[in-house]
Amino acid sequence: MAEPGPIARPPSLEKLGLARDRPLVIVDVDEVLGLFMQGFGAFLAARGYEFRVDRFALFQNIFQPGAAEHLDLVEGRKLFDEFFRTDCGTIEPAPGAVEALRRLKPKAEILILSNAPAEAERLRGEWLRRHGLPHALVLSSGPKGPITAALVSQTSGRTAFIDDLIPNLDSVADHSPATATFQHVADLRLRPLAPRSERHPRIDDWSELGRAIEDAVS
Length: 218
Hints:
The chain is of the alpha/beta class. The chain has helices spanning 36-46, 73-86, 97-104, 121-130, 145-152, 166-175, 206-217, and strands at residues 24-27, 50-51, 62-63, 109-115, 136-140, 159-163, 180-183. Strands 5-4-1-6-7 form a 5-stranded parallel β-sheet, sandwiched between helices. A two-stranded antiparallel sheet has the order 2-3. Helix 6 (166-175) links the parallel strand 6 and strand 7. The radius of gyration is 17 Å and the shape is globular. The two termini are 28 Å apart.
């Protein structure tokens, strides 16, 4: 769900510790592996702001207490950047995500691809390790199709990509059409608000999603 951070040039799979001859599963963090909106909302509340999840948006949901208009977008961006510098390691894993990835690990290489500011790399890596997910982590920016295609081109195995945002899923489908794409929206409040697309199966239960990913890369 996070807004884009700096562009990252994809490293080689070898440098990431990933095998080229195994299936590759590429997974987003915010609202896929982790409950970003919940964590960001707690961060805002501690600073005296209201986070009203009444639209599928980010900065437009930040309000001064009782205000009718959302916070200025520039101020919202400052809060977003501060969250990633200091608090992005505090979010909770999405229900069932950790268990599903652990079951997938013997069957596929797993790469975490997150649109987040560069300052988040240490905290995000620590978060993954703390929850038993010491997977390769790449920070990126903007539509994820080009970077996914560059990563996928290095493997001979089947591939899958999971994200909450339709623009990222569409981008991957356009740039890497052989990659199976799945939409997952972790936050219960966001699910009825999130756009859908017939191009990408929407599976919000991680147990079911894990099985679908396994089938797609087997």
